[in-house]
Structures are given as C-alpha cells and as structure tokens.
Amino acid sequence: MPNTYGLNRTLGGAIGVIALVSVLSSGAVLTTRNQLQDATDALDRSTQVVRGLDAIRTAMLNQETGLRGYLITGRESSLEPYRTGRPALEETIPRLRTLIGNDAERSRLLADAVTAARAWQADIGETAIRQAADPTTRPEAVRIEAEGKGKQFFDTLRDKLAAIDRLEGQTRAAQAVRVAQAERNESLAVWSGTLLTLLICAAIGIAINRLIVRPLVRVMNFVEHVGEGNLTGTLGTGGHNEIGRLGRSLNAMVANLSDLARTNRAATSDLNAAAAEIRASAQEQAASVEEQFAAVQETAATMDEITHSGAQIGKRATEVIATAQATAQTSRQGLRAVSDTAKAMDAIREQAEAVAGNIVGLSEKTQTIGDIIETVNDISERTHLLALNAAIEAAAAGESGRSFAVVASEMKLLADQAKAATGQVRGILGEIHRGINTSVMLTEEAVKRAATGKTRSDTTQRTIEEITAKVEEGAQVFQQIVASTNQQQLGIEQVMQALHGIRQASQQTAAGTRQVETASANITQLAQSLMALAERYRH
User: Fold this and answer.
1) Helix pair 402-536, 242-397: axis angle to 10 deg
2) CB of 53 closer than 8 Å to CB of 159
3) Are residues 189 and 328 in the same domain?
4) How far is CA 167 from CA 60, 93, 372, 499, 500, in A?
5) Residue numbers of the chain with a pLDDT score lower than 50
C-alpha cells in the first residue's frame, strides 16, 4: 500500500510516540521515586525521634546521678552531671515536638513524659539540693532520696518514653515495608517503560524501513543506473509523499537528459569543425607575428649595445671629470699650502733675524758683566791685602788690637768668598758667551735656509698654478663630451621606447594568437568530450 503521508508527518509521529512513552515511563518512575522518598523521610524522622527519646533518658539519668553524688559527698563538683543534664533536656524537648508534629497520641505521651521530668526536677532535684546545702536540713534531703520518692516520676517518664518507642517501632516497620514496596514499584516501572519503549522503537523501525528506507533504496538504484549512462529505465512512483515526488522528478530529469544528449551530439559536430578553422587561422597569424617579433628583437639588441657603449663612455668621461675636479681641488689646496709655507718661511726668517739681534745684544751685556766681575775681583784682592795688613797691625798692637784682628779676619774671609764667587761667575759667563756664539751661527744658518725655502716655495707655487689651469681646461673638454653623450643617450632611449612598444605589441599579438589557438584546441577537446559523453548515455 503506497504511503500517502509526508516524511515530516511520518517521522514526527514516530518521534511523538517515542516521546509519549518516555514521558509516561518517566512519570511512573518519578511517582514511585517520590513514594520511596516519602517513606525514607518518615523512616529517618522516626529514627531521629528514637534518638531524641534516648537523649531525654540520658539527660534525666545524668541529673539523677549528679543529685545522688551530691547527697553522698556534699561537694559541688558532684552536681556537674545534674547541671549539664538540665540544658540537654531543655534542648531535646523542642526538637522532639517538631519531629512528632501533629501526631496526637505521640504528642500526649511526650507531654506526660516532660511533665514527669520537670516535676521530678522541681519536687525532688531542686528541693534535695536546697536541703543538702543546709547542714540542719541535710538529713531530710538524704531521707527523700533514700525513701525513693523520685522513683514514681522516673517510672512515669520511662513508661511514656517506652510507649513512644513502641509507636516509633511500629512506624519504622510500616515505613520499611513502604520502602521495599516503593523500590519494587520503581524497578517495575523502569523495566516496564524500557521494554515498552524497545517494542515501540522496533515497531517504528519496521514501519520506517517499509515506508521510507525501501523506497529510498529503489531511488538510489535508479540514480546509480542513470549515473552509469542508462537513460532507458523509469522509476515506479507510488504514493504522494516526498519520495513519490522525488521519483516523478527523476523520471522527468532522465527524459530531459535523453533529449539533451541527442541535441548535444549534433551541436558537438558543428563546434568541432569551427574550432579546426579557428586554429588554422591562428597558427598562420602566429607565424607572421613571430617573424616580426624576431626582427624587433634584433633591432632592440643592437640599440642595447649602442646604449651600453654610450653609457660606458659617459661613465668614463664622468669619472675623468671627477678626477680632474679632484685634481684641481688638490692643486688649489697645494697652492694654498705653498703660499702658507712661503709666508711661514718669511716669518721664520724675520724671527731668526730678530733672535740674532737679541743674541748679539746679550753677548754685549755678558761682556759688560765680565768687566764688572773683573772689577769685583780686583776689589776682593785689595780687600784681602788690607785684611792681611790689618791683621799684622793688630798683632803688633797686642792686647788692644785683638778686636781689630777679629774684624780683619772677617774681612779676609769675605774677600776670599767674593774672589771664589767671581771665579764661578766668570766660568758661567764663559759658557754663556760660547753658547751665544753658537746660537748666532745657527741663527744665521736658519736665516739662509729660510731664504732658500722661500725661493723654492715661489717656484712650486708657479708650477702648481700652471697645472691647475691645464686640469680645469681638460675638465671643461670632458664636460662637453659628457653633454654630447647624454644627448645621444636621450635619442637612443626614445628609439628604445619605440622598439619596446613594438615588442610589447608583438608579444601581445603573439599571446593573443596563442590564446586563440589554445581556445580552439580546448573547444575541440570539449567537443570530443561532449561527443564521448553523449555516446555514454543510452536513449
């Protein structure tokens, strides 16, 4: 039976059924899990109630133990269990009330137990502690404990707590049954949902295979036959869904391909003939363009050589000009150096003549100093003679001339020192005089050499001026050569630009002809491919 439903509706319905089953299974699992959680919470609450009851028993037992210890020993430290038990009791009672909640029976039993505990604290515990603190009433407090007056309160407390324990035991047993049942229900819901989902998925898979997969396999087989070139077959079209419309579209496409193959075979023959004519024409034009391009290449090569030679000439001339300019610059610098040297020679000669004059004046002054030294030497000899005479006279005078003899001795000593000093000065003046004579001769020689250097500097200056003039004339000539070469280069560059334009045009023409030839070859190849393709399809 053909499928009249669309793929969207088919797949959507399958997904919807799976989703519905999943939701129902999840709801069942969630319900059983909530039941399990409620039972677990109730069981946990009952356990906490039992622990609270144990805490009350422990608190009351601690108070009773502390009271008995105090009554026996009379020490305050024995009341420590009593004092810790009271707040523990007060802390546990509200927590138990909260856990019991609105349960009337448990609330009543707890209230009776709390009443008994507080009555024991007020009537027995506190009374006994007050009486035990006073020595006069201490025996009364011991008697209260010994007679067991507090036992009735503890019995009531234990009975009420035991009743609550029994109720909680029943509750825990019932909740344990609920937990086990909830766990079984949860497992059943999980396995039932899983099994139902698997069954539905299997049914949906079978339906999809029959309604979608098999028709698609038939379509794929038909498409493979068409791809292999078989255009004679047709695809059965059943149903009005997307697969049916696809089959009808494929049948129409195959019919159009068959018509196209017949038309393509005829057009390919015409295209192949036109491509052969275009290729022959392009080959003839390419041969002509290649000959023109070869001629332009030869002309361009010749002009390149001329351009290269002109560039070399201009380069060499420029280098010669640069060398000439550098030489002229160096000559001018040398000319300035020679001029400076001549001026320095003149200055040296003038300074040497001035030094010679100063040395002659110094020689005359040393001669005058020598005369003065001779005079001083004569005076010292005379003084020495006078001192000798004075010493003789003092010796003749005896005791009265002794002081005069001392003066005469000092005068003789001074005369000897003056004579020795004048001798040293005379030696020094002799050395100075000899040095002055040597300096005079050297100065005269320097003046002569300075004059000779001045003459040679003048000659060198004139020679350098002549060389500079010749070099500048040569540089001007080479500048004219460079200018002529540059003009020639401009003309050659214009010719080269024209040849370059011709060469580019030839290259473009050759490229165009090659493209035309390539295009014609491609057209021929395409025509052959189309022919082969058309031959592949049977129709």
Assistant:
1) 170
2) no
3) no
4) 22, 18, 159, 122, 119
5) none
Classify residue 35 as left (phi > 0), alpha (psi -120 to 50) or beta. Answer: alpha
Overall pTM surpassing 0.70 (yes/no): no
pLDDT for residue 322: 78
Please write the tens of the pLDDT for every residue from 256-286: 776 766 676 666 666 667 567 756 766 776 6
Which domain range does residue 24 map to? 7-221
pLDDT given for residue 29 in this prediction: 67
Give me 255's structure tokens.
């019919």
Residue 264: predicted pLDDT: 62
Q: Which residues pair with 230 in a beta bridge?
A: 538
CA distance 300 to 320: 30
Which stretches within 212-241 are classed as H helix?
Answer: 214-227
Number of helical (H) and strand (E) elements in the chain, helices listed first: 9, 0
Among the candidates 164, 196, 221, a domain finishes at: 221
Q: Which residues of 71-89 are buried (b: 16+ CB within 10 A; e: fewer)?
A: beeeeeebbebbeebbebb
DSSP for 272-292 reads HHHHHHHHHHHHHHHHHHHHH
Structure tokens at 104: 């009337």
Check which CATH number belongs to the domain holding 474 and give it.
1.10.287.950
Residues 464-485 pLDDT 10s: 778 777 767 766 766 776 676 6
Within a 10 A sphere around the Cβ of 41, how many other Cβ atoms?
11
User: What tokens were used for 11?
Assistant: 């797949």
The count of domains in the chain is 2
Residue 230 maps to a domain:
no
- Supply the pLDDT for residue 483: 73
Domain for residue 250, yes or no? Answer: no
Radius of gyration of the chain (CA): 73
One domain, residues 158 and 268: no
What pLDDT score was predicted for residue 188?
87
In this prediction, residue 350 carries a pLDDT of: 79
Does residue 333 sit in the same domain as residue 428? yes
- What are the residues whose beta carbons fall under 8 Å from the beta carbon of 380, sequence distance 6 or more? 415, 416, 418, 419, 422
> Ramachandran region of residue 234, left (φ > 0), alpha (ψ -120 to 50) or beta?
beta
Paired with 538 in beta bridges are: 230
The 3 state secondary structure assigned to 464-531 is HHHHHHHHHHHHHHHHHHHHHHHHHHHHHHHHHHHHHHHHHHHHHHHHHHHHHHHHHHHHHHHHHHHH
Six token digits for residue 427: 């030696």
Residue that is written with structure tokens 């540059």 in the block: 486
Closest CA to 43 of 179, 142, 137, 153: 179
